[in-house]
Backbone:
């Protein structure tokens, strides 16, 4: 059991209050290894699932398929393909910025939940950053389900009042003459950032460019670098 | 409602920490709660706004203590019971009450992952004229509804500029409470960071919020 993982999750929950899990610091070797929630949640969820299956309200195979979809089929690689295409094809970029939902559908990325999409272009003097202060709105069909930090009280509270401070903490120092625009997803519009194409990437093709684009760069908390290690997915 | 979920601008929430190589779900039950929540939506027993509101209704101290998917679990049980799909007794026992009807799942496995297509979520086909135009100065209303709203406290009473008209959408403040769709325009409204936060903010920066007509008044 890694204490850092537990600390991380505890911070992510943003709890000023003590979590009940602090009362169970001993090591675990099974599936609720990474929770700060009462361990009986595993049982309560199992019990609810079997009830709903027994009542014919849900199909267990549909549940398996949903988990599989979000664990294996939907992820930031989809968004990365969109960004790389926009970098190499100015016409596509124009369509993406004008009507993002239609432009990503051109590449086969239709939202499973039929969501609206807006693309925001970063430049040398403009940095866009996406947050949802009220909940967790996020273009999941393009970049996967939102990570814990995106849904955390820390990010949701601070991204609007201190975006530069948040970015600095995450290793991105923006010059004073760069304009920062924060997009708070308060309605049914989802936002994706088109990061700047890194200098030195001029000779790279679309496929190689796709490999460079990270999830965090499409949220606006990172830039795209020529090489990145420790892929954050 | 002025609930714990409306946290834009709060202090004391700690640093933002990005977990490297984060798994999609940190435990099996998280994935099951997510999948159950999506699959049960196919019954159309509640809309997306009602769903969001039921997360907000979790008492504040509990809301802060709970992890994200624990909130989803609580919300799911509350809505299942409220809409009569299950009873509290059934949830407590984990077994169907004797004699209760057996349904056919509304979301078959074969339909999972296929895009729903058609009109995008939240949009309305209603023909409604916009009350504001791009470039116009507006003020976010000072309101404090006890029910659901998507107008965060930090923007209320502040001056902004209409940046873009997104078209006509269902109004969450009524839709969440089954009081009708009240379709109206939604705009991207630009607020200067200094208008929201004072001199501590950079004069260059701004926050854009998506706002319904009913959240705005002419400035």
Residues:
């Amino acid at each position: 059991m890694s204490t850092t993982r537990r600390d991380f999750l505890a911070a992510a929950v943003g709890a000023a209050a003590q979590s009940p899990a602090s009362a169970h610091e001993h090591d675990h070797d099974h599936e609720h290894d990474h929770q700060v929630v009462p361990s009986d949640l595993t049982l309560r969820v199992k019990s609810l699932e079997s009830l709903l299956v027994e009542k014919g309200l849900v199909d267990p195979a549909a549940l398996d398929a949903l988990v599989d979809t979000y664990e294996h089929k939907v992820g930031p690689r989809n968004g990365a393909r969109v960004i790389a295409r926009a970098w190499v094809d100015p016409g596509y970029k124009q369509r993406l910025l004008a009507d993002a939902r239609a432009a990503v559908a051109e590449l086969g990325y239709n939202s499973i939940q039929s969501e609206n999409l807006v693309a925001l272009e970063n430049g040398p003097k403009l940095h866009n950053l996406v947050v949802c202060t009220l909940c967790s709105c996020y273009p999941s069909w393009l970049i996967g389900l939102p990570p814990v930090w995106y849904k955390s009280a820390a990010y949701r509270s601070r991204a609007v009042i201190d975006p530069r401070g948040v970015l600095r903490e995450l290793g991105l120092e923006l010059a004073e003459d760069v304009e920062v625009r924060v997009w708070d997803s308060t309605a049914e519009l989802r936002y994706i950032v088109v990061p700047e194409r890194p200098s030195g990437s001029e000779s790279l093709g679309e496929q190689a460019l796709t490999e460079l684009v990270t999830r965090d760069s499409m949220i606006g908390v990172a830039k795209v670098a020529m090489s990145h290690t420790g892929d954050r997915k | 409602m002025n609930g714990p979920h409306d946290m834009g601008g709060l202090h004391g929430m700690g640093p933002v920490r990005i977990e490297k190589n984060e798994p999609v779900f940190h435990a099996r039950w998280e994935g099951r709660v997510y999948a159950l929540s999506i699959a049960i939506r196919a019954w159309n027993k509640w809309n997306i706004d009602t769903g969001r509101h039921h997360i907000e209704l979790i008492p504040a101290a509990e809301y802060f203590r709970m992890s994200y998917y624990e909130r989803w679990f609580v919300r799911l049980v509350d809505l299942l019971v409220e809409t009569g799909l299950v009873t509290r007794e059934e949830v407590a026992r984990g077994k169907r009450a004797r004699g209760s009807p057996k349904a056919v799942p509304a979301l078959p496995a074969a339909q999972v992952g296929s895009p729903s297509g058609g009109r995008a979520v939240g949009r309305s086909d209603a023909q409604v004229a916009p009350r504001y135009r791009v470039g116009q100065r507006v003020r976010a209303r000072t309101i404090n509804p006890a029910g659901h709203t998507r107008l965060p406290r930090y923007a209320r009473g502040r001056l902004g500029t209409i940046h873009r008209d997104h078209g006509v959408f269902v109004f969450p403040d009524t839709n969440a409470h089954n009081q009708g769709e009240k379709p109206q325009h939604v705009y991207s409204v630009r607020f200067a960071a200094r208008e929201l936060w004072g001199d501590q903010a950079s004069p260059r920066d701004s926050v854009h919020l998506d706002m319904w007509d009913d959240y705005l008044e002419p400035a």
About this structure: The CA atoms of residues 30 and 68 of chain B lie 9 Å apart. The two ends of chain B are 25 Å apart (CA to CA). Chain B has seven helices and five strands. Residues 68-82 of chain B form the longest helix (15 residues).
